[in-house]
Backbone:
């Protein structure tokens, strides 16, 4: 009868009538369940159940303390699917049955019992328990595989971002360092305003792509010393669209989607005077608003072919002056509290930042 049940299956019987307990022990053993533990002392049985592994319990209710109801209550945190309990009792009234099931019994039989029926119910409970265990193990294996595959996919996207960042770095080293720092600055600012850690990490990886479109701008314009002509400036203002066209794809990942919207919108201004679409206020994606602020501050603090680096005091004064005009006022307020941290990152613009890319 129990050929499909593992041989190591452990059955526990608690019944204060020794003769009943012995009969159940011998019956279950006779049908192939060899690991059977019987207790006529309910307290001893409960103590054993708490400290030892078991697979199925046959439990009387009407016993000296602790009675079967108390034992069920003490076992209330067990996995009911994996550790079934069959009540076998003389208490056949509806209230006792209802209470037994409420306390976690899987099946309920009344004495005198038909042994073949009891054995069939034991088999059914055990088969269901082992099927449940098998399914749970399969689910755990599947979840582990999904986690591994998800991690691999995330790393592949990060590798792509790092590769694109290196491509931008090849245009000139100063711009490359700037690209790397923006991710750190943006993540720091996002955390300051209370964004979730996962969102901040996505922003840290996506922000370096803000100027990817400059790959499509001629070196004669990108590296020009001195002011641009109107024609050159018009060409330069195309880099947000170029970056968006490189990054945007239907059904993209959260990381790629964020990188695309940052590339497209990081030159928009809070008052609507930016480009390429003239967006204003909250119509500008939050990620792009954050990167715009960090981008300008870092650009002011670094040497470029057309200017010398501004001092921290001058750059910070400019940021405050542009609150509500170029920049989101709430972000400016948050950035004020992190100027010292950002300056510390600027001092370490080589080793720590390059570690995220190479």
Residues:
């Amino acid at each position: 009868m129990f050929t499909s049940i593992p041989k190591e299956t452990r059955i526990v019987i608690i019944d204060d009538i020794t003769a009943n307990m012995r009969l159940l022990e011998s019956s279950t053993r006779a049908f192939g369940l060899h690991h059977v533990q019987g207790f006529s002392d309910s307290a001893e049985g409960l103590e054993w159940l708490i400290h030892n592994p078991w697979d199925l319990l046959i439990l009387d209710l009407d016993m000296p303390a602790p009675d079967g109801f108390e034992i069920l209550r003490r076992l209330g945190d067990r996995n009911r699917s994996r550790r079934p309990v069959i009540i076998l009792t003389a208490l056949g009234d509806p209230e006792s049955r209802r209470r037994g099931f409420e306390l976690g019994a899987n099946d309920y039989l009344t004495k005198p019992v038909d042994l073949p029926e009891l054995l069939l119910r034991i088999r059914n409970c055990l088969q269901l328990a082992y099927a449940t265990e098998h399914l749970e193990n399969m689910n755990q294996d599947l979840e582990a595989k999904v986690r591994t595959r998800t991690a691999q996919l995330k790393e592949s996207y990060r590798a792509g971002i790092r590769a694109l960042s290196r491509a931008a770095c090849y245009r000139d080293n100063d711009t490359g360092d700037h690209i790397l720092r923006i991710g750190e600055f943006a993540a720091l600012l996002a955390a300051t305003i209370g964004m979730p850690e996962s969102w901040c990490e996505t922003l840290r990886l996506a922000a370096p792509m803000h100027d990817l479109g400059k790959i499509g701008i001629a070196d004669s314009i990108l590296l020009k010393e001195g002011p641009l002509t109107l024609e050159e400036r018009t060409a330069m203002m195309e880099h947000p669209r170029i970056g968006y066209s490189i990054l945007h794809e239907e059904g993209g990942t959260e990381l790629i989607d964020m990188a695309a919207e940052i590339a497209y919108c990081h030159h928009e201004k809070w008052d609507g005077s930016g480009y390429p679409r003239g967006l204003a206020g909250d119509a500008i994606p939050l990620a792009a608003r954050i990167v715009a602020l960090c981008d300008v501050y870092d650009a002011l603090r670094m040497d470029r072919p057309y200017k010398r680096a501004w001092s921290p005091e001058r750059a910070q004064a400019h940021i405050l002056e542009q609150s509500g005009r170029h920049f989101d006022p709430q972000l400016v307020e948050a950035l004020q509290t992190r100027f010292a941290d950002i300056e510390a990152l600027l001092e370490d613009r080589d080793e720590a930042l390059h570690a995220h890319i190479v």
